[in-house]
Amino acid sequence: MERAERRRGGDWRWLLRHMRLPLCAFAALALLVALGLLMLRAALLKNAYETGTALARSYAAEASGDLNVYETLLDFGTSALDSRLMGGESRESVLDFLDMYFQRLDTVLGEGAVDPYVVLDGEILAANPWEGDADYDYAAALWYQQAVEAGGQVVFTPLYTDAVYQRPVITIAQQCPGSGAVMAFDILPEHLHFEASELAEGDSFFLCDSTGSAIYHKSGLELSREELQHYLTGLVARIRSGALAEEPVIRDLDGQRRGIYYARMSNGWYSIITVPYHNILGELQGVAWALFLMFGVSLLTLAALSWRELRLDQRARRANETAQVLGNTYYALYRVDYERETYEMIKGSAYVRDRIPAMGPYDELLRTASEVIEAEAFRDFTKSFSCGNIRELVHQQVRDFGGEFLRRFGGEYRWVSVRVLFDAALAPGEVVLSFREVEQEKQRQLREHRLLEESLQLARQNEEAKQTFFRNMSHDMRTPLNGILGSSELARQHLDQRERVADCLDKINSSGRYLLGLINDILEMGRMEHGQIQLTCQQFDLNSCVEECLGVFRMQAERERKHLRETLQIQRPLLVGDAFRIQQILNNLLSNAFKFTPEGGTISLTVQQLDGGEHPKYKFVISDTGIGMSPEFLERIFEPYAREMRFSDRQASGTGLGMSITKNLVSQMGGEIQVESTPGSGSTFTVILPLAPAEEALPGAAAPDGQGSPFSLSGLRLLLAEDNEINMELTTELLRMQGVQVTQAWNGAEAAACFRDSEPFSLDAVLMDMQMPEMDGCEAARRIRAMNRPDAGVVPIIAVTANAFAEDIAVTTAAGMNAHISKPIDFDVLRDTLARLITPADST
User: Fold this and answer.
1) Per-residue pLDDT tens for 238-267?
2) Coil, strand or helix: which one is 544?
3) 143 shares its domain with 218
4) 249, β-bridge pairs
């Protein structure tokens, strides 16, 4: 019994003695794994900190970008206002500028994005006046005090509740340095938007002002407004105190640990990101349990394995497999003894194996490599990978050194990466020289590099073109403005000379129309660049479409003593398409033809149906006998901002956008445009458009008749809806001079009420502005159409607005309006429109 016990004790001692090394290795591995888990946890937290901080800075930069836009527009407004006030301009001129500036803010930022106002001579001038603004104590307002104290610098207020509308706003304000006037914008937090797609589920993003008030938030926390504000106030207080600098960790209201990462903006705001710890370390816990389970299984396995040789064999086999996997990454591996200048081939290509032995002088290896390495690259190769240079690299403790070169494989060259690997585990004086094929990676890098170079070149070309465009616009826009201002001043000084005043008025009208054309081109190109141009598909008569377009140019030809010839060869005039855009194409081409054709010259328009099939195409040919264009300019005529400046008298007036707009419209309609030109002889533009035929005749469509007597406005009774006092006065006076009886309405609601209170059929037509207070023009038109009276459905309603785009016309049509006239009103167009909509029976 005692002998058996001694045998069992010896067995245990033998087992422990032979398992001592595996157990020690197991304990060391467990320690390393535990240490690795701790390091992994620290790395995850560090990575989360870096990622969260970068994301917070990204959102801060995004918010700063939005605020910079507001700041730039405000700075521009105050500078322009100050220059006018210091220049002694009249109050009416300043008010006109402010009205224009406020409208431009709506155009640039979007309607309602900001609520601008100005404190001028103790009075608040607001874009959107409110009841009681005259009694508002602006001097006690924080935004006013901060702006005055800042002395001309832009200031931001913390988030506060607006006293008028009782909603949270942020005010950005600036004082005019010369005049002392203060301009301010109220910014609604809901107009600040962020791309928060990078936030994982459970993550939270907060944008706070300097006091901790929430401006914007995206959070999975279900909190009331008060709870959220209390939570953020505490966070901002801890950020300011530096309590989160060492360990950026907090506990939310549910007691969960969260990482907090933040960025402070230049105006004192805070961009804050919080991430639940389970989002950061959630997978680490699963890995840890898996590792613990693996160690348990390994311990049981070690207890079952009693032979150290089997254990070592298994480990050696796994090590060999790992080395083989790593070796397969390279097509050639050499151990180089740089002291003895020899090599040992661990793995070589078939070409090298056929020419040199597995071991030998290093120079022999270099000689063989010279046969397959590109000649120019081989010179650098021998210099960089000589034994002397390898010795210097080892001396400098450079553990990874290499490069890339072209190597011949059969009949083609491919990219190869060569590395010199040095490690203390190698024998003294030895390094590993490895070769790996990287053809696909290198080609991808080269393609990306070429793409970057091409993108940079294109960006430079676009920037240069835009800079040239803006320099030209500075002149081209000031020229008509100088004409308008100078002519108005001359007219004021010669009020008793009727002919002189009439000449000044003609010049003002001409300069104004030229300036309107510049602005329309710029706005149209901006919409095209942002993909906001939409084509409509409606039934129209091509003969009427072309005749309507030619009407304006016939008068221009007579006025400028030029000849206009037209030829229409159309078998199927009833088509489906966008008549407005077709007229825009013809207007652009005919305007250019008139612009560059001298007095006595000829402009021709030919419209021809190319075939009579089911889907015919129509060819529009516009030719002139003008100055023509150079071959060099023809190559870039359709590029944005392109203008030819061949003559010292700057005949190439305009924005340089007309041809680009025309090309874009033709392409969107599936057509093509060609141009031929000879300097001194003229130009010919050919446009071919595919247009589908209409199924049936247009209701009420008739061939154009240019032989009838001019339509008279005298005796007509019109309802005019317009909220702008100057526009109302001018339009009313001009209509009354034509014998029209005008009923005025100052907003949409008043227009609907005036029509409701009038006698049936007492009004011949309604001229409706679109953007008016209380009720816009579309809503007023819908209400008129919905009234229970016999003339509600038939009275012509004409939209009069600055929105002259096709999609705007579609909106007015959907609201029940019959026609659309762009501002400024062309009274010849208005007369033709009224003549088309009002029958003789209507006007009696």
Assistant:
1) 888 777 777 788 877 777 788 888 888 887
2) helix
3) no
4) 259
Q: How many CB atoms lie within 10 A of CB 694?
A: 19
The reply to whether 510 and 538 lie within a common domain is no
Alpha-carbon distances of 670 from 525, 535, 607, 617, 676, rounded to whole Å: 19, 11, 18, 11, 21
Q: What contacts 590, CB < 8 A, 6 or more positions away?
A: 549, 553, 603, 605, 622
Residues 208, 173: one domain? no
Residues 118-135 have pLDDT tens digits of 988 888 888 888 776 677
The structure tokens listed for 700 are 């009420």
Neighbours of 398 (CB within 10 A): 12
CATH number, domain containing residue 734? 3.40.50.2300
Contacts of 452 (CB under 8 A, 6+ apart): none
Q: How many domains does the chain have?
A: 6
- CATH number for position 165: 3.30.450.20
* Domain span including residue 653: 533-693
State the Cα–Cα distance between residues 175 and 190, nearest whole angstrom. 26
Hunting for tokens 């322009």 — which residue is that?
Answer: 80
Flag the least confident range among 72-86, 536-550, 608-622, 747-761.
608-622
Task: Count Cβ atoms within 10 A of the Cβ of residue 735 and give its class: 0-12 exposed, 13-18 middle, 19 or more buried.
Answer: buried
Give the three-class secondary structure for 96: helix
Residues contacting 280, CB < 8 A, separation 6+: 44, 45, 48, 259
CA distances from 711 to 113, 545, 554, 719, 840 (A): 44, 20, 18, 19, 10
> Based on the domain organization, do 688 and 812 belong to the same domain?
no
The answer on 480 and 386 residing in a single domain is no
Q: Name the helix (H) or strand (E) containing 400.
A: strand 400-409
d(Cα 599, Cα 529) in Å, to the nearest integer?
Answer: 36
What does the pLDDT look like over 395-406, one tens digit per residue?
888 877 888 888
pTM for this entry: 0.36
The pLDDT, as a whole number, for residue 701 is 42
Pairing state of beta strands 359-361 and 342-347?
A: antiparallel
Indicate the residue among 145, 174, 191 that finishes a domain: 191
Give the three-class secondary structure for 210.
coil
748-757 vs 777-785: helix crossing angle, rounded to 10: 20
CB atoms under 10 Å from CB of 784, counted, come to: 27
Q: Find, among 784, 670, 770, the residue nearest to 723 by Cα.
A: 770
Query: Is residue 253 domain-shared with residue 133, that is, in the same domain?
Result: no
- What order do you get walking across the sheet with 249-251 strand by strand? 214-218, 204-208, 270-276, 257-264, 249-251
Cβ atoms of residues 346 and 364 within 8 Å? no
DSSP strands (E only) in 625-730: 672-678, 682-690, 692-693, 717-721
Residue 677 and residue 557 share a domain? yes
CATH assignment of the domain containing 509: 1.10.287.130
Burial 498-523 (b: 16+ CB within 10 A, else e): eeebeebeebbeebeebbebbebbee
Position 479 scores a pLDDT of 57
Q: Are residues 231 and 268 in the same domain?
A: yes
Establish if 21 belongs to a structural domain: no
- DSSP E strands, 586-729: 602-609, 617-624, 672-678, 682-690, 692-693, 717-721
